[in-house]
Amino acid sequence: MEILFSSEITAVCPQLCVAVLEADVANNAHDESLWAEIYAEEKRLSEQFTPDTLKSRSGIEATRKVYRLLGKDPSRYRPSNEALVRRFLQGKHLYEISTLVDCNNLASMRWGYSIGGFDKDKIAGDTLELGVGRAGEPYEGIGRGVLNIEFLPVYRDSIGGIGTPTSDNERTKIALGTTRVLFTINGYDGNEHDTLACGKDLQDMLTRYAESDGGTLRLFKATI
Q1: What does the pLDDT look like over 28-73, one tens digit per residue?
Q2: 158-217: per-residue pLDDT in tens?
Q3: Domains of the chain and any CATH numbers
Q4: Helix H segments across 5-79?
Q5: In what order do the strands lie in the sheet with 216-221?
Q6: In whole angstroms, what is the distance from residue 70 CA to residue 152 CA?
Q7: C-alpha torsion sign, points 49, 167, 170, 87
Q8: How are beta strands 114-119 and 2-5 bridged, if at all?
Q9: Other CB atoms within 10 Å distance of the CB of residue 12
Q10: What percent of the chain has pLDDT over 70?
Q11: From its phi and psi, is residue 4 left (phi > 0), alpha (psi between -120 and 50) or beta?
Q12: How far apart are CA 151 and CA 145, in angstroms?
């Protein structure tokens, strides 16, 4: 899969880098060892952040800044990297979805980056372009129904939008029967080292929890 960046995105975030992980996997409903790891991470982060100080994490702060520059309220359309951690800072556990989605969420909360998780076989074409949502553009967020993505960063395949930092699209979501995945780790802060480290962490989780050989991990940069 190739990643392209629209001029609308590079204008507000020229430092943007995206790590893309593609892998063959086996999904399941629950993994006890994975959830022990998630609970440990919840405890660690709960001791380190409050809902207010959470916004200062590099990946979250940068994502919120891009939202504001594009004209979107990051507190109303909260990016997932912030929303995940805020949930358990408010005394709630993460939603349990499936092992692949749970791995995605653990990597996101650990590193502070929004991560798009897609069933690769549901993506149309072999190129994704990161652009900006348009007024009235059709988009069904996972578990959210119709989502207003105007002014949100959005990945599009040859059919339309599949992922934003606020919510991915129902059309390409990961399901229990998913056997090929594509993850996009979105480094709006331009930190190539940590963006790739997040990808490598997720890669390791897939080998331990999803019967993967690790797949391939590549870095794409908005400005070369």
Answers
A1: 999 999 999 999 999 999 999 999 999 999 999 999 999 999 999 9
A2: 999 999 999 999 999 999 999 999 999 999 999 999 999 999 999 999 999 999 999 999
A3: 2-221 (3.50.40.10)
A4: 7-12, 32-48, 58-70
A5: 114-119, 180-187, 17-24, 216-221
A6: 7
A7: positive
A8: unpaired
A9: 17
A10: 100
A11: beta
A12: 18
Distances (CA, A) of 194 to 84, 115, 163, 167, 206: 19, 13, 21, 22, 18
Tell me: the pLDDT tens digits for 68-111? 999 999 999 999 999 999 999 998 888 899 999 999 999 999 99
25 close to 178: Cβ distance less than 8 angstroms: yes
DSSP structural state of residue 112:
T
Output the six-digit token pair for 51.
């809902």
State which amino acid sits at residue 211. E
Tokens of 69: 């520059």
Q: Is the pTM of this model over 0.70?
A: yes
The CA-atom distances, in angstroms, between 185 and each of 3, 52, 153, 159, 204 are: 12, 23, 13, 22, 15
